[in-house]
Amino acid sequence: MIKKSRKITLKSLKTPLLIGTAFVAGAACTYLSSAQLKSLPALATSEAKAADDAADVTLDEALSAAATESELVESDGQVEVNEFAQDQDEESSQKSAAKPNSENKIDLTYLTTFIAEMTTFQGNSVEADVVETANPEWEFDRGSVLADFEGRIAPEFRVPELLKDRVGFWFDVYTKWDDNQRVIHHSRYPWIVFKVVNVTSIIQNDTPRRLWMRREKADKVVKAEAEGIRQALRSLTRKRPGAPLSETEKIVADALLPLGGDLRKQASRALGEVRIQMGQKNFFRGGLEVSQRYLSTMEDIFRRNKLPMELTRIPLVESSFNKHATSKVGATGIWQFMGNTGRKFMVVNDVIDERRSPFKATEAAARLLKENHLILRRSWPLAVTAWNHGPGGVRKAAKASGSHDLGIIVKKYRSRSFDFASSNFYSEFLAALHAERYSDIAFAPIKREAPVDLQVVRLHKAIRVKELLRVTGLSLDEFLLINPDLSGVAKRNLPVPIGFRVHVPSQVRSSLDKLFAIGGETKAKRDT
Q1: Phi and psi for 6 in degrees, rounded to 5?
Q2: Helix axes 247-256, 263-270, angle to 10 degrees
Q3: Is the pLDDT of residue 419 over 70?
Q4: Is the pTM of this model over 0.90?
């Protein structure tokens, strides 16, 4: 049966169509399917094989840039930024201040597995005001989605007028372009797109035999295209009005047109701002599939802390909800906590790393976001930006720009640390939030993973993992699947310390009740 194309149009809303691309900051981190998670030994074998093909290769810097958190303390009832918070601001710079280009390298061992499992959706190009979805027969009005036409998002997270184009840019990469499409664009004004290069034919070719070689070849092609854009910009800086333009020069000039002003000056400014962005649609879709294992419990945690449930979508930006994600600077888990920040809220040492536990990290994230919100004038745009840049850095940016309106700050302020990653983080979050809340419109039907029913047991005494396995009947792989924070303890056969919280399937809780006194945490939880 042939289905007719459908298009949702809400002209009565009179919302402008937003054109742009989007990026999942932690998308280069891993995604593991349910099948893989059920067999960790088999997964380890497949990863070893993938490692041979997936050497470190050149990709967009932003793929490995993880958001940064900040540290706060309470002093005499007042929440203040202290020296530790300043250290976290420096930690933020370490994570996000790398130059926005595609020169950096990341480990693609897990990424290769992720790509192999995800379906890469392709289709013919569509008009700029219509978003291409996983189903080429389905089109929707992007402007209406970003205007939240069905009221699915809290009013405090409406897209600000000054950030509409920027949010539209990130929304497109989440919903329109996959990882085989590289967007050459203006880094200061990301929605100014010069060219989209599709490298699918290179990546899916039989030669070269190694995947990393095909990726390297694709990178060279994209870099050559970017250099062609720079050459056109150089030429435009010398062109007199009315002078004939080459085909590439015309494309670049048309792209710069929305910025207004003198073309030669705009070309000169853009010359040092050419950036390559990888599409993220397939990664984002994978994040939507796995996120259902966590979101209901994460939302409960945020409600208990009187925080908006919308904030639980930050991991879509940070890691695509991959609990094994580790950035090249050490940010870890679905929330991508750095080490110093993690130690303030969780157990993080040589053998235990609670940053890897999705729900323990969510509890820590709730506390940190609440603190940021209190410090930064109860502004969620500033508090979410501080997740990436640190509250001290956001305060500095607000002072330098003379405003606490994030749209104005992003427009006026730029520094070595408050660069591409920091200035775009809140826009990425809003784009991810709208893409997730309207995923039934933006994507073909998604096979979402079911929540896992677990309970939390606080140990009454120190006990080795082997004993826990004997009592619960779980295999080591099954135990580490739901307690990834204890992998170091298990590998060294060390005792789990007294008072530590362990996750177990609900059906084996009674076995532990016979051994341990369950202290105050009897409510069932869903975890992995």
Answers
A1: -125, 145
A2: 90
A3: yes
A4: no
